Amino acid sequence: MSSTTTLTNPKLSEWDGGQRPMKATYGKLMMWFFLVSDAFTFASLLIAYGVVRFMHPAYEGAYSQFEFATSSDNFYWPIPEKVFNAFPGLHGVDAPLMFVGLMTFILILSSVTMVLAVEAGERKSKAEVEKWMLWTIVGGVTFLGCQAWEWSHFIHGTDEGVIRDGVQIFGANLHVNQYGPQLFADFFFFITGFHGVHVTSGVIINIVIFYNVVMGTYEERGSYEMIEKGGLYWHFVDLVWVFVFTFFYLV
Amino acid sequence: MAHHDATLSPEEIKKAKMKTVIKVTAILAAVTIIEFIFAFAWPDGSSRFILNILFVGMTLLKAGYIIMEFMHLGHEVGPLKFVVLFPMLFLVWLLVALFQEGGAILDAIQNW
């Protein structure tokens, strides 16, 4: 297929495509601008979470004595450490934040393999790009699997559940929430869900890029810059998780 | 891309980049582990406010390394850095304003 186009008037000036404003290619600039807008969306969600948290009374006892609120008269916000304290295969063991921590490491590692893929792309080393892209995809899929497990655990709740106003409640959904105020569950589903959608689309983008690498598309094009653009998106997903990890699980 | 000395061979450039990647990975891992230790070892009675400030500081440190090194923004030209980072200042104001608002709403609910 021939794709050569001859321009009658060659584009030379700064903004008509002849040169690169800010020394970045069009694709990279647009990815950055998209990420700025996406950062605003995520920040709005996290700030909204903060507002709602401040709208509810805080738990006042000692941290080690924490129990889920049992009365709607004193509906304090739960301590996230005490909510996310399960680990696959360790039923009934109190392992606060261990699983979330593992998820964080998995995502950071997949970000590292992405950097290595970009680096290999700059050297036009096809085999190495393939290897690192594949590891990145594996990391992303593993993270999504972990998130599915965590959601499932959150939805099903603890063995004992909690008795609130005389009614026994297990787990959380959009109608009831064993852990505390309803909005806590709503924000959990929305924020981690929105991030999960980003991870999912990131994995799909990475798979498309991996396919193109294998098919030699970038080899033919003479540039592996697409890896870099996909990489920007992937790192951003990791970046957002760093904030979600702190503001949703730690603080 | 990064401004490397033109006299370096591709192999040397690769080595230099790998060094950066390993360094940043180590920092990210170390900060996350420190966050964990703080979350568990923080004594029951002491101020969570100080702890939360420490968490925010460590998060910003991690975010800085991811943006500047992994996303390579640190090696882009000044205007691009500005265009990406400056809008984030608006979020600081949103944060301050809305957190105040949340506290005010709680106060109104409890004391009206």
TrEMBL record, chain A:
It is found in: Cell membrane. Keywords: Cell membrane, Membrane, Transmembrane, Transmembrane helix. The chain crosses the membrane at residues 29-52, 97-120, 132-151, 187-211, 232-250. Residues 1-251 form the Heme-copper oxidase subunit III family profile domain. SUPFAM superfamilies: Cytochrome c oxidase subunit III-like (SSF81452). Pfam families: COX3 (PF00510). It comes from Flammeovirga kamogawensis. Belongs to the cytochrome c oxidase subunit 3 family. This is Cytochrome c oxidase subunit 3. It comes from the Bacteria. It is a multi-pass membrane protein. Its main location: membrane.
From TrEMBL, chain B:
The chain crosses the membrane at residues 21-43, 49-68, 80-99. It is found in: Cell membrane. It is a multi-pass membrane protein. Keywords: Cell membrane, Membrane, Transmembrane, Transmembrane helix. InterPro entries: Cyt_c_oxidase_su4_prok. It comes from the Bacteria. This is Cytochrome C oxidase subunit IV family protein. It comes from Flammeovirga kamogawensis.
